[in-house]
Each structure stands twice: as C-alpha cells, then as structure tokens.
Amino acid sequence: MNFDYESMNLIPKKCIVNSRSECDTSVKFGPHNFHLPVVPANMECVINDDIAIMLAKNNYFYIHHRFDNDIISFCKKMKELHLPISISIGVNEDAYELLKLLNKLLIIPDYITIDIAHGHSVKVEAIIKMIRKEISKDVFIIAGNVSTGEAVCDLELWGANAIKVGIGPGSACTTYTATGFGSRGAQASIVEECVKAKNNEKTLIIADGGIKEPADIVKSIVLGADMVMVGGLFSALKDSPGSIVKGTDGLLYKEFWGSASAYQSNKKNRIEGTKKLLRMKSNTILEEISYLKECIQSAISYGGGNNLLSLKIVKYFLKS
C-alpha cells in the first residue's frame, strides 16, 4: 500500500523523561557524529560555502551542491579549517576530472555524494567503481536519487554507503508531472520499502523530498531513514542563498528552484524542475535547526524513548 507522510499518525507511548531537553537527537552518519539527523538539500538556493562552514562548525551535517561553484577552493578551505569535507558530483567527464585533481592534491573528501535525478544508472555504477578503485576504498559515498528497493540493492552492491531516496516528491521538482515517474504522493511508503530492501544493515538511507513540516522529518525516521534532507523549509529562511524578491503584495519572498530546472541550468530544454517563490521567514538557518531539534526531541518523548533509536520502533496507523 502506498502512502505519504500526511496519511500517517504516530502512536504515543509512555514518556520516560522529565523534559524533552533530555532527549538526544545526535546521529552517527558515516565517519562523523552530528547533532541532528537533518541535512539541508544540496541545492544552490539552499546551501553555499558560508552556510556549509557554519553548519560544519556547529556539528551539523551538510552536502555542498555541485552547480557553478569552485569545489577545489572549497575543499582546500575546509581542510585548512579542519572541518568535514562533503561535496556533490555528477557522473560526466568533469566529475572524473575533479576527483582526479582532488586526489592529486591529496584531498580526499569525507563524503562524496553522487547526485543525479535518476540514480539507478550505469553511469552511477561506473563512477562509484572508479572512486573505489582510484580514489579511496574508505571514502563515504552517498548515491541517488532512487525510489525502488531494487535500486537500493544495486547501489549497495556497487559500493555506496548511503542512498538518497526520493524521485520527484519535492515541491520544486516536476519529474512526476513531466514524466509520470517518481515517488510523489507515496514518498513515505517508498522510504519504508527502500529501508526494508537493503541487504547490509550498515547501509544508511537519506529520505529526500516531500518534507512539508517537522512532523514529516520524525515520520521519516520512524520509517527507518537515518538522515532527512530538507529543501523548501530551509530555502525560505532569511539567510538562505536564494535571491530576495519583493512581491506585488509588498511582502518579501525567496526564490526556490529545482536542481534540474531550466533556471538552474540556464537552458530551455530542462523539464525536471521549476522555480517558485516562497514567503520569506524571519528566522535564520541556525534558528530553524534549533526549532527542528526541539520538535524531534518532543517527538522522542512522545515515542517513549530518550534518543533517536527509540523512534525506529514507534508504531503508526494510516488515516483512511
């Protein structure tokens, strides 16, 4: 049965903490521990160098985007600051050249995210195998995006450590409306399917897309996700990289666009993304993260535990 987050109701259990502040939201993800199982989307309108540094300094996970930025300079900067290096690459020749140059400079990122719209691909298989053979057997590889259990099993086999799950559920993505493929309207059940499909318990799952409110993050974790990627909720914040636009109503908005959109690529033949305006929020990224942490802590207390692992055994029912 396919379902999405809004159809889920979580079932509370006896609270065992005196205050939600006692609940631990930390998570081990790859070689590092982080304060929260939430990562801003690796989109140009969500993250840039400064935000990546800010997140890393505050012990939050980040994945830098791969569009129109100087990855080499960024990696050098993060290495000098002794901060985790987490980058995105594509699957074309420029990605191979980037990896070889980083290797020549003796810079091995902590995390490499292979980021394409349809991650169950022979090109993804090829670049994972190249990384494992020529760059590092130990670097933490994230690959995606996918939306089937079969894809999860293949990416595991190819050498991915973590897999991004979600094709087209995001509000700025038009893959589903343009092609008919994807997880829109069923992202929650697809996350659950992909979690159950993995053969290696060490393989981690990132639920990516369709997060409209903090409860959706909690539900993703209940379904088995280890990390949750959020785009729109961060893009609308006042210190996000997106441009500020004054609307005809006199209110301020933030531009939000999909990574495969024509706006992103400066091409007119890109059909899998769109640009939209989001009402700008008054809070900052760190303030939003603090709020999300409180929401997750509260959820842990309702779930009868004191850490994230306790959410993994929370039960739910589906609204008819």
Automatic annotation (TrEMBL):
Annotated IMP dehydrogenase/GMP reductase domain ranges read: 4-305
Could you tell me the EC number(s) of this protein?
Answer: 1.7.1.7
Give GO cellular component annotations, separated by semicolons. cytosol
| GO MF, one annotated term | GMP reductase activity
**Which SUPFAM superfamilies does the entry mention?**
Inosine monophosphate dehydrogenase (IMPDH)
The reaction(s) annotated as catalysed by this protein in its Swiss-Prot or TrEMBL entry are: IMP + NH4(+) + NADP(+) = GMP + NADPH + 2 H(+)
Enumerate the UniProt keywords alphabetically: NADP, Oxidoreductase
Gene3D superfamilies per the UniProt record, alphabetical: Aldolase class I
Q: Name one Pfam family in it.
A: IMPDH
Instruction: State what this protein does.
Output: Catalyzes the irreversible NADPH-dependent deamination of GMP to IMP. It functions in the conversion of nucleobase, nucleoside and nucleotide derivatives of G to A nucleotides, and in maintaining the intracellular balance of A and G nucleotides.
Recorded protein name is GMP reductase
**Organism of provenance:** viral metagenome
